[in-house]
Amino acid sequence: MRIAILGAGAWGTALAMVLTRNARHTVRLWAYEAEVRDSIGAQRENSLYLPGYKIPSGVTSTNDYGEALDGAEIVISVMPSNCCRNVFEELHPYLTPQMLLASATKGLENTSYLRMTEVIRDVVRNDKGFDPRVGALSGPTFAREVAQGDPTAITIASSDTELAKVIQREFSDPAFRVYTNSDVTGVELGGALKNVIAIAAGICAGLELGHNSVAALITRGLTEITRLAVACGGRPETMAGLAGLGDLVLTCTGSLSRNRSVGVELGRGRKLPEIIADMHGAVAEGVFTTQAAVGLAQRHGVELPITQQMNEILQNGKSPRDAIQELMSRRTKSEWS
After folding, report:
1. Which of 12, 72, 91, 217 is most buried by a 10 A CB count?
2. CA distances, 268 to each of 6, 206, 272 (Å)
């Protein structure tokens, strides 16, 4: 199939590699940065975001929307959440009702609190006048491990059963297993909110706290994610799946997690602007998502104590140790209240 991937960061590039292994599909990879486009074209490597991995010849890189989307049957959005609306507003002339769209971005729009499939649907409806066929691709995936062919499992969520089946069939191979799920809300919120908890897990590591602390954080973090997802219409069982517990454990414990790495540096006493500057364009989605998660929780009357404290750390410079002390001294209650 002809597939367009919008976003040539590490994850977008790794997905392009999966789809063109053994010459299965042709992929046009839209890159914002000209240096990424040129690196892939000349060296068959994304030297900026995924160095050291050879990109198959079936991948063509471009920074032209028309070229990327010309004849595409499947379009995968893998851009940072804060870019999604602007990019789709620019590329909407090239979209058609027949295209199958999927978002692989794990975040929320910071002003509206919309999930990425909601942002895409909102733009396409307003600018094109039709309701797009759209789903969400999420799960426990480090781009480098996907690129090197480590066995990986992921889920495609959509209310459009045919879309989910097509993505499952065309993306699956012996090293990349795709499941289907109809709970788009749960899958997207699980993927977005786990990044917030991952920053907190990194703070624990930066403070040199032990395994007890991280285990408690992951468990209570999953409770928060589930609470908000259900309030927004998601299903609790989704949070026990790949886009919930699976992605949360990976991002909270894996050294390749950008969100966890941000937390580690915060725990060591560094300031957020300095940490972000040292990331050289890479994105830790949890930094954007935390404030949106707090706003979404307030809208639905849901309590998220860990997320609230993370927002205080990220937005207001609160001391991580003070945040932990406040969490630990909250009124005692039943675990399931």
Report:
1. 12
2. 35, 5, 11
Tokens of 121: 């649907």
Classify the phi-psi angles of 156: left when phi > 0, otherwise alpha if psi is within -120 to 50, otherwise beta. beta
CB atoms within 10 A of CB 217: 21
The values of phi and psi at residue 119, to 5°, are -65, -50
Read off the pLDDT band of 337 (50, 70, 90).
confident
Which of the residues 54, 106, 165, 194 is marked catalytic? Answer: 194
Q: Domains, the chain, ranges and CATH?
A: 2-182 (3.40.50.720), 185-328 (1.10.1040.10)
pLDDT tens, residue by residue, 52-95: 999 999 999 999 999 999 999 999 999 999 999 999 999 999 99
54 annotated active-site: no
Cα Rg of the chain, angstroms: 19
